[in-house]
């Protein structure tokens, strides 16, 4: 099997795995705050389970990068899927026991699974070069489109499936999806059987040198703001919708539309990056996130929630996938494990902080105050990104 054939096969396998693994996030996000309301007596910490999910994701990135560098991506991904299975079982047990902290432990462990799932996008780019990296990344992320349908629908279908224990069935379905991912990931093959493992051992440039690169700093910062703002708003959205008198079903559908919007544009995002450049697509994503906040501030009817969340998802897709592609231009093959792992650690560490603060801010200041904070964060990255675009120093071949 040629490297090109193996790469195409891997992209298909990773897209399938993204469908299964990516469904866990919508389940946790749709129900984490609502289950937290049922199990916690302190309204300030009702979104803590979602925040812990993001914290687990952040803390899992560096160990995941180390394990995959040491034992290979397939072995790492199989370990991640096994972790996801355990996470769903713990969360369901926490609901059955009516224990807020056991449930939160389950979502925290689920974040470790997500740290592997999030790296599928980098695995897709390993076997290609130049503009095709963006196409490979967006092709895998198309799997998230199916996850956007599957995750929220499982919430609707299974939330009352266990009598007298609402929502436990949804987290059992989360465990089942992780179990189904294992045979899919067994199909993954490495196109790099010769040479590259030894090359990776050389390590390339010191990480401290890479971290000082303005190009890498901007790429990471764009990812932080795109993903951080999306999580900041999305974590609070289901709770805000229910507080405004909308049903749990409408809240879950709002998240479904949001996640559909997150991954639906992936059919064209890679081609847009190849044609217009990664930085332009990233800038467009950030601008759309700003528009989503404007819609959220215009009112609290269900349509305004849904339109805002849909725009937020589209903005995330362009912003985060563009930032991911920018990162792949900042390292050589032997540097990729530490550069990609560090990027995800920084991005998802900030995302976890955004998630932690989201619930508290919603409780203390309200939905409008939360959305007003979007604008300065967008401007912080959009200004230097536009400046870089105008200088014409964008989308160069992979840096060494």
Please, could you describe this protein's structure?
By secondary structure, the chain is mainly α. It has a single domain, classed as Growth Hormone, Chain: A, CATH 1.20.1250.20. 81% of the residues lie in helices and 0% in strands. It has 19 helices and no strands. The protein has helices at 3-22, 24-39, 48-71, 73-96, 100-118, 120-125, 132-141, 143-158, 168-185, 196-202, 207-211, 214-243, 248-263, 266-276, 278-297, 302-328, 336-365, 367-372, 374-391. The two termini are 29 Å apart.
Short characterization:
InterPro entries: MFS, MFS_dom, MFS_trans_sf. The protein is mainly alpha-helical.
Q: Look at the structure and name the CATH superfamily.
A: MFS general substrate transporter like domains
Shape: globular
Helix content: over 70%
In what range is the share of β-strand residues? under 5%
Mean pLDDT: 86
- Counting structural domains, the number is 1
| CATH fold description | Growth Hormone, Chain: A
What's the total count of β strands? 0
């Amino acid at each position: 099997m040629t490297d090109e054939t193996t790469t195409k096969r891997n992209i298909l396998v990773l897209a399938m795995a993204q469908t299964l693994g990516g469904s866990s996030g919508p389940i946790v996000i749709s129900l984490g705050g609502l289950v937290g309301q049922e199990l916690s007596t302190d309204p300030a910490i009702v979104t803590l389970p979602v925040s812990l999910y993001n914290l687990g994701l952040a803390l899992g990135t560096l160990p995941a990068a180390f394990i995959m560098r040491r034992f290979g991506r397939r072995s790492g991904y199989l370990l991640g899927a096994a972790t996801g299975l355990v996470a769903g079982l713990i969360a369901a047990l926490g609901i059955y026991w009516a224990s807020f902290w056991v449930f939160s432990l389950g979502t925290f462990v689920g974040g470790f699974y997500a740290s592997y799932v999030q790296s599928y996008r980098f695995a897709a780019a390993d076997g290609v070069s130049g503009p095709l990296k963006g196409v490979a990344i967006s092709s895998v992320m198309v799997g998230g489109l199916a996850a956007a349908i599957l995750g929220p629908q499982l919430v609707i279908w299974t939330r009352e499936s266990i009598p007298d224990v609402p929502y436990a069935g949804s987290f059992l379905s989360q465990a089942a999806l992780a179990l189904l991912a294992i045979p899919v990931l067994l199909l993954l093959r490495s196109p790099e059987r010769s040479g590259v493992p030894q090359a990776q051992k050389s390590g390339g440039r010191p990480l401290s040198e890479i971290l000082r690169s303005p190009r890498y700093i901007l790429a990471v910062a764009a990812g932080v703001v795109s993903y951080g703002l999306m999580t900041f708003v999305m974590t609070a959205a289901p709770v805000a919708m229910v507080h405004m008198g909308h049903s749990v079903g409408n809240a879950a559908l709002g998240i479904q539309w949001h996640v559909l919007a997150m991954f639906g544009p992936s059919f064209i995002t890679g081609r847009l990056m190849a044609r217009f450049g990664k930085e332009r697509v990233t800038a467009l994503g950030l601008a759309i996130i700003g528009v989503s906040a404007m819609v959220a501030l215009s009112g609290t009817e269900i349509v305004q929630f849904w339109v805002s969340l849909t725009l937020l998802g589209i903005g995330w897709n362009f912003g985060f996938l563009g930032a991911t592609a920018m990162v792949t231009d900042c390292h050589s093959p032997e540097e990729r494990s530490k550069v990609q792992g560090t990027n995800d650690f920084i991005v998802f560490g900030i995302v976890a902080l955004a998630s932690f603060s989201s619930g508290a801010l919603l409780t203390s200041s309200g939905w409008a105050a939360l959305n007003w904070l979007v604008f300065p964060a967008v401007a912080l990255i959009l200004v230097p990104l536009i400046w870089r675009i105008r200088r014409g120093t964008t989308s160069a071949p992979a840096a060494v």
